[in-house]
Amino acid sequence: IYTDLLDNEEIYEVLLDEQFPVYFDRRIAAEDYEGLPLPALSLALRTVATPDYLRDQMMNIVNEAFDFFEGRDATLDLYLDVAQLKQAILGEKQEEFARALVDALPGCTSGQEPMMPGSVIIRCIPTSLTLDEAVQEVSKALPMYLQKVPDRIQLTDEPFTVSNRWGSVDVWLGISGRYGFAIALLILFGMALGSWFVAALIAGDAWRMRLLWLGWSMIVPAALVFLIGLLVGSEMVQNGMRYGLAHAEMDGVAYSPALQAALADALRPLLETIGNGFMMAGGIAGGAGVALIVWGSSMPAPLAEMHAPQAPKQEDGSFPPPAQPA
Fold it and tell me: From 66, 213, 248, 290, which residue has the greatest number of CB atoms within 10 Å?
C-alpha cells in the first residue's frame, strides 16, 4: 500500500511545480507570491530535484515513522532534506540551474524593476543584459539567495523524543512503540476470547445453548466492524480527508489546491483498502457466528427440556390454567 502511494508521480509533479518553488523563494502561500515566477523557478529546480529524489525523501519519512513506532528510534523527526539540493545548486549544477532559470524568466516590461526590494536575484531579464550576462548575474547571486533557505522542510512542529528514564511515562511510550502493538493485540485477543468463552459457559449448562450464545454474540460485533469498513470508504470520510488537506501546511507553506487534489487521489485507494480489510474481517467473523448458530441449532435440546412434566390436557384439548398461589 505504502509503495503504491509513494510511486504516485502526480504528487511529485505538483511538488516540483508549486510547493518547492514557493518554499525556496518566499515560503508563503502561492496567491501572495511576488518574487521569482513560479514556472521559471520550477523548471530550474527540476535540474536538481527529480521525482526520484522526492520519492527517496518520502520513503525516508515513512521509514522514520515506522522506526519510531516500532521502537528502533527514540525520536520522531519528519522532514524533507533540502541540503543536498542546495549543495548541488552551488556546486556542479550551478550553471545548469542558473541557465534554466534565466531561460524561463520573462523579459522585463516597461518600468518594471528586474529585482524586488530586499531580493538578491533578478525576476525578469532587463534589456541591458544578454542571456549569458544574466546567467552570470544569477550564478553570482545564488549563494546569498540560498542562505535564507533552511536545510530542512519540517513536517512536524518539533521533534518528539521518548525519554529513556524508567520513572517517566515516556519510556513506557517507547516500550509500547517497540512491542506494544503486537503485545496489545495478543492481550486483547486473549482476554476477549477468554471472556467470550466464560460468558458462554455461564449462559447455559448445555452446549446447544452455549454455541447459540457464542454465535449471536459474534454476529453483533462482526456487523459493527463491517459497518466501520463501509464508513471508512465512504464519501463522508473522504470529505473529512479533503478538509484536513485544505488546512495542512508544509513548514508554514499551505498546500496548493493541485497538491491537495493529488494527495486526495493517492489516499483514496488507501482508505478503500483499509475499509475492505474491515469488511473482510467483519464478514469472516459474521460467517463464523452463523456457523456456530447452525451448529448449535443442529444439536438436540437438553433431555430435561424435552421431558419436562406437563399438566394433563382437558377434555377440549387445552391445558388447564396454572394454579393460583394460596
Answer: 213
* Dihedral angle computed from the Cα positions of residues 167, 173, 175 and 179, in that order, rounded to the nearest 10 degrees: 160
As beta bridge partners, residue 81 has 152
- Note the pLDDT of residue 99: 93
Point out which residues pair with 253 in neighbouring strands: 250
Per-residue pLDDT of 72-90, as tens digits, reads 777 778 788 888 888 999 9
Residues 10-42 as b or e (16 or more Cβ within 10 Å = b):
ebbbbbbbbbbbbbbbbeeebeebebbbbebbb
| Residue 314: φ, ψ to 5° | -85, 180
Q: Please state, in angstroms and rounded to a whole number, the distance separating the CA atoms of residues 57 and 16.
A: 13
Which residue did the predictor score with more confidence, 185 or 174? Answer: 185
The confidence band for 30, taking pLDDT boundaries of 50, 70 and 90, is very low
**The overall pTM is greater than 0.90:** no
Phi, psi of 73 (to 5 degrees): -135, 130
Work out the average pLDDT over 239-255.
77
What is the amino acid identity at position 16? L
Determine the Cα–Cα distance for residues 196 and 234; give it in Å rounded to an integer.
31
Confirm if 19 and 253 have CB atoms less than 8 A apart: yes
Q: Give me the pLDDT at residue 150, please.
A: 81
All residues at 6 or more sequence positions from 217 whose CB lies less than 8 Å from its CB, including other chains: 196, 199, 200, 289
* Euclidean distance between CA atoms 241 and 254, whole angstroms: 16
Contact indicator for 29, 253 with CB cutoff of 8 Å: yes
The packing angle between helices 207-232 and 257-298, to 10°, is: 170
